Amino acid sequence: MMEFVAAIPPFERFYEERKHEVFGYLSRLLGREAAEDAFQETFLRALRAYGKLEHGRHLRAWAFTIATRVAVDERRRAVPVLEPREVPVDDERPAYAELEHLAGELPPTEQAAVVLRYGYDLSYDDIGSALGSSAEAARQAASSGVRRLRRRHTT
Amino acid sequence: MTAVPNHLDRHFRAAASEAGLLDVAYDLADSPVGPLLVAASARGLCRISFDPEPERELDALARSFGTRVLRSPRGVEIVRRELDEYFEGRRRDFDLEVDLSPLPAFQRDVLEELVRVPNGNVDTYGGLAGRIGRPRAARAVGGALNRNPIPIVVPCHRIVGASGNLVGYAGGLERKRALLGLEGAILPG
Asked: Do B1 and A13 touch (CB under 8 A)?
């Protein structure tokens, strides 16, 4: 059977389709101001790699992958991560939307995992590749991130 | 969703071109013969289209030059400036590098010879065929001109029928007449 190979769109189309979502994601991770530098860096990195792509599948996840790496590098450089205090988990489980404002306090990879999962609905496979880890590690990072957020929320 | 601010979008498009990361930079420009899409590869100007709908051009550009095609005014700044000067009557000749590399050899020969027809003059299909050493190929020359990817700058509007009739133009006879009028060309016949 012939396999359909998704064509790689001209970069203009990829950029137009992804730019707002990627900027929104970076703003959530880094705050509006730092997101501007990270945005430019993300799409310049994408452009450097674009000529070497072999097919046009998973371009959305690919864009998030690059943005995640840029954001994680940026946060490791810029912001000291606060270790949350251990407190008992409440049985009331608040929805992610109520927790998101606290996500900036998570360690960078947990934050990225949580935002990609609950904010952008990416699969754990895609989140794993965005974080350079396995799907299982991505699932753990997201669930540990959410646990931390719930603890924060209840304190 | 958080929209990308315009200044950020502009910065990225300029940075992409300045970093030399584009296979093709393009932009849209107004002109007296209608809106134009102009595009440049790393080697030079590679496309001027009278069809201002980029969607139809982007795939063709990507196939010929590579997928890194981006609207980037910075990347075609010089082309736009020379076109403006030409349309304002302040420029007779273009000092632009052109990239004809994706074209078949015969068409490239025709277009490279065509560039020698000076502003204000016209030549015929047969005349051009003779000058590339293919005097019997007037019809094939017409075909090559009809698929000229860089009209205006590669001046296929300067080629007319033996009797002085304008004959044809991929961009429409109105535009051909307008360009020759702008150049003050005197038609034979």
From this structure: no
